[in-house]
Amino acid sequence: MIMEKKRRAIYPGSFDPVTFGHLDVIARATHLFDSVIIAVAVSEGKVPLFSVEDRIQMLKESTSDNPAIEVVPLSGLLVDFACEHDVFTVIRGLRAVSDFEFEFQMALMNRKLEARLETVFLTPKEDYTYLSSRIVKEVARLGGDVSPFVPAPAARKLREILK
Ligand code: ADP
């Protein structure tokens, strides 16, 4: 019997907080891969609004219906995480040309650091191409309704943290 290797992928990001754009990319990734590890970056250049625990919690609550999805913290280099988990496919979302330059640079840098690493770019449904965690936080800060843009656990946490 031929045993097929399970196809796994890592979807790294800040998810500060998770939006319907991220969930759209995650859904597409789960159609292409047997399982997806969502790797939530602990610290980055930018200071996140939510702690990594909160960001993980929001993602877990929003993806709990799919057992093929795992949500874990990511500290340090993505390539080290990839080697530790023995998963060399990275998912990133591309919304518009404006994402391209940064994503292209990251993908090539990651491959320089670890030759086995491949980045797969997925584009969301057109309705989500304007969505970013940053703009959602801005709307929430100014008292706008964010429920069309983020899943319920994230809308709740945004209300809590900004009140
Ligand atoms: P970063 O890792 O740059 O902090 P995010 O956590 O906001 O970015 O997003 C992680 C990944 O998801 C990135 O590849 C980003 O381009 C992508 N992404 C973010 N928002 C959307 C969206 N609305 N549609 C598709 N992809 C998105």
Task: Explain what you see.
With 163 residues, this protein is α/β, with parallel strands linked by helices. The chain has a single domain (8-161), classed as HUPs (Rossmann fold), CATH 3.40.50. 43% of the residues lie in helices and 18% in strands. It has 6 helices and 5 strands, in the order βαβαβαβαβαα. It has helices at residues 20-32, 52-63, 78-85, 97-113, 133-141, 152-162; strands spanning 8-13, 35-41, 69-74, 89-93, 118-122. A 3-stranded parallel sheet has the order 1-2-3, with helices on both faces. A two-stranded parallel sheet has the order 4-5. The radius of gyration is 16 Å and the shape is globular. It starts with 7 loop residues before the first strand and ends with a helix.
Features:
5 strands; globular; single chain; Rossmann fold; alpha/beta; binds adenosine-5'-diphosphate; three-stranded parallel β-sheet; two-stranded parallel ribbon; 163 residues; 6 helices
